[in-house]
Design goal:
The chain has about 650 residues and is α/β, with parallel strands linked by helices. Among the domains are: about 150 residues, Aconitase, domain 3, CATH 3.30.499.10; about 170 residues, Aconitase, domain 4 (Alpha-Beta Barrel). The chain is built from 21 helices and 27 strands. It has a six-stranded mixed sheet with strand order 7-6-3-4-5-20, covered by helices on one side. A five-stranded parallel sheet has the order 17-16-15-18-19, with helices on one face. A hairpin with a 4-residue loop joins strand 26 and strand 27. The longest helix has 17 residues. The chain binds alpha-methylisocitric acid and iron/sulfur cluster (SF4). Alpha-methylisocitric acid (MIC) binds next to helix 2.
Length: about 650
């Protein structure tokens, strides 16, 4: 495989600061753009401020407010003010609450093909739909990118996804990614970038491509990317930004060591069943399922075209009396266009409940389903309890299946609605950037309002020589960051206050977990495969660390969560299937000569004295990662100016 000729490698080469483009090697790349959203952003700006840098150095940085928009108390409103002030002081664009979901707005107003984007949200790869190399990261990594530091990553393997044919009626972009999830599972993309190519591309608009790259996050992929072509040019022209367009695609004759082909014409409407995005089946294969709620929106499916399609399907009909239909448009641009062309009126007349332009129900920030209820959502995640209702059953689908469910009250093939309306891409989008505040040209130290819930970052201790850890929790496979630190309207407003939010660590599994953890500290958690899948929220690493977490022993880790654990000085140890079986919740684990073992990056011995057992745990850490853990976290290391490879950790 010639790595240099691929789309991804062209972008990586243009941005390479250090290292060589060999899969598995560590490289450092220049980041052109960053984005944050409010739920991860407050911590990211606190981290940025602690670096003591006066102005953002990335070419373009945008701070969005889209998650915590329900203001039942002062916390979220205070966070919004802090973020607005921080943007003005440090030189970022600020997208005000009400302007839209970061990923949708970024596509519309800021994305540039061929550039790199690092965002403190796992769905940052949405911008891969327009040919950006867009990656999710923890807030601290994004803070460093804002400070002008190159981003460190391992060169991922590439998987080619070759698209051919065109969609039959009632099938759309969501069915492409759902069928990939069915084939590859939530672990299928680990360590890989998915590159899309083939004759089928021509029929996919940028928002459709972005639905696919958005949900590449659910495959566990580093990111996903489409070429930038004539379709991309048309999209950017319609957004009034054609001057920022450039073509970028694979060179002639590239091949992939691993490639999958998808014939779009053979796809059928699909749904992901509770409680995992890869529990995918054909709609036709489901028995009759009664639906209580339908939600259309989220960063996956709330482009103008998606919502216009839903409005056209609902036109002249009424929402089924047993169903509550909610609509959350992805951006103010989308909402305004729906209002102007009459789609909004059609949705309202059909009986839809119109929510504000934000993440809303996707993160449990509204519209939790009824107890035991069934919700059909055009979203990307259906993890247990994420909707806010523990026993709800959430199905993920495209807008066609969702509209059919809203009208009929059951999950059914949308062909029962008659003919699929044809909805094209607009030639011109409605452009009004008045809800985006540009940074002042000459920043002067301006005010920085920090409400009482915004607390300083906790100080973290360096790694000790030995650890005696209580294994207070043993989990199964595919534990999500929503399991580790849930979202929802009660907990999300505490994102700026680590001490307060730490009370909710693993609260869905055991409401007393944080109390037990504090008593048992230092402690370890034992996990199965793909530990920490899902969100980029670094709170899921920092809050347990604050309670006393020093090591997670798992069979494998999701990339983003692993990076966040390391950034906060927690050891991600890899154990075998056999050893996983030998550890019980409640065991005490002894690890000796830790610093020495880490400096050598060798396997370390984990003893369970009560069982007279000695297990081997792998580390597979890069030299930079080892230095971060030894220092007790990335901030400690950065403060000492020791982030560059080849530099030695301080002696403690
Ligand atoms: C999510 O979809 O889980 C979130 C909420 O957008 C997260 C970020 C967060 O937890 O703030 C993500 O995907 O990274
Ligand atoms: Fe927001 Fe949901 Fe997208 Fe996360 S997945 S950014 S919560 S809309």
């Amino acid at each position: 495989m010639s790595y240099e000729k691929h789309l991804t490698s062209q972008i990586l080469s243009e941005h390479l600061v250090e290292g060589s483009l060999v899969p598995g090697e560590e490289i450092r790349i220049r980041i052109d753009q960053t984005l944050t959203q409010d739920a991860t952003g407050t911590l990211a700006y606190l981290e940025f401020m602690s670096l003591g840098i006066e102005r953002v150095k990335a070419r373009l940085s945008v701070s969005y407010v889209d998650h915590n928009t329900v203001q039942t108390s002062f916390e979220n409103a205070d966070d919004h003010l802090f973020l607005q002030d921080a943007a003005a002081r440090y030189g970022l664009y600020f997208s005000r609450p009400g302007n839209g979901i970061s990923h949708q707005v970024h596509l519309e107003r800021f994305g540039v093909p061929g550039e790199t984007l690092l965002g403190s949200d796992s769905h940052t790869p949405t911008a891969g739909g327009m040919g950006m190399l867009a990656m999710g990261a923890g807030g601290l990594d994004v803070a460093l990118a804002m400070a002008g530091e190159p981003f460190t990553m391992k060169v991922p393997d590439l998987t080619g996804i070759i698209l051919k044919g065109a969609f039959p009626p009632w099938v759309g972009a969501k069915d492409v990614i759902l069928s990939l999830l069915q084939r590859l599972t939530v672990k299928g993309g680990l360590g890989r970038i998915l590159e899309y190519s083939g004759a089928g591309l021509a029929g996919l608009t940028v928002p459709e491509r972005s639905t696919i790259t958005n949900m590449g996050a659910e495959l566990g992929a580093w990111t996903s990317i489409f070429p930038s072509d004539e379709v991309t040019r048309r999209f950017m022209k319609a957004q009034g930004r054609v001057e920022a367009w450039r073509p970028i695609s694979n060179a002639e004759g590239v091949d992939y060591r691993e490639a999958l082909e998808i014939d779009l014409s053979r796809l059928e409407p699909m749904v992901a069943c509770p409680h995992s995005p890869d529990a995918v089946v054909r709609v036709e294969d489901l028995d009759k399922i009664h639906v209580d709620q339908v939600a259309i929106g989220s960063c996956t499916n709330s482009s103008y075209r998606d919502l216009r399609l839903a409005a056209d399907l609902l036109a002249g009909k009424k929402v089924h009396p047993d169903v509550s239909l909610v609509i959350a448009p992805g951006s103010r641009q989308v909402m305004a266009m729906l209002a102007r062309d009459g789609s909004l009126a059609r949705l309202i007349e059909a009986g839809a409940r119109i929510l504000e332009v934000a993440c809303g129900p996707c993160i449990g920030m509204n519209q939790a389903p009824p107890s035991g209820g069934v919700s059909v959502r055009t979203f990307n995640r259906n993890f247990e309890g994420r909707s806010g209702t523990k026993d709800a059953k959430v199905y993920l689908s495209g807008p066609q299946v969702a509209a059919a469910a809203a009208i009929t009250g059951r999950i059914a093939h949308p062909r029962i609605l008659g003919m699929e309306p044809s909805v094209g891409e607009p030639k011109e989008f409605l452009i009004d950037d008045s809800m985006i505040i540009a940074p002042p040209k000459d920043p002067s130290p301006s005010r920085l309002r920090m409400g009482p819930n915004i607390k300083p970052l906790p100080e973290l201790e360096p790694l000790p020589e030995s650890l005696s850890l209580a294994a207070i929790l043993k989990t199964g496979d595919n534990i999500t960051t929503d399991d580790i630190l849930p979202g929802g309207a009660k907990i999300l407003p505490l994102r700026s206050n680590i001490s307060a939010i730490s009370r909710f660590v693993f609260a869905g599994k055991d409401p007393e977990f944080s109390v037990k953890a504090k008593t048992a500290a230092p402690f370890a958690v034992v996990g199965g495969e793909n530990y920490g899948q899902g969100s980029s929220r670094e709170h899921a690493a920092l809050a347990p660390r604050f309670l006393g977490l020093r090591a997670v022993l798992a069979r494998s880790f999701a990339r983003l969560h692993r990076a966040n654990l390391i950034n906060f000085g927690v050891l991600p140890l890899i154990i075998s299937f056999n050893d996983y079986g030998k550890i019980d919740q409640g065991d005490t684990l002894e690890i000796k000569y830790l610093r020495e073992g880490l400096e050598k990056n060798s396997e370390i011995s984990v003893m369970i004295p009560a069982k007279s057992l000695a297990l081997k745990a792998g580390m597979d850490l890069t030299s930079r990662e080892r230095r971060i853990i030894l220092a007790g976290g990335l901030l400690n290391l950065v403060r000492e100016g020791l982030t560059k490879p080849g530099m030695h950790a301080r002696k403690q």
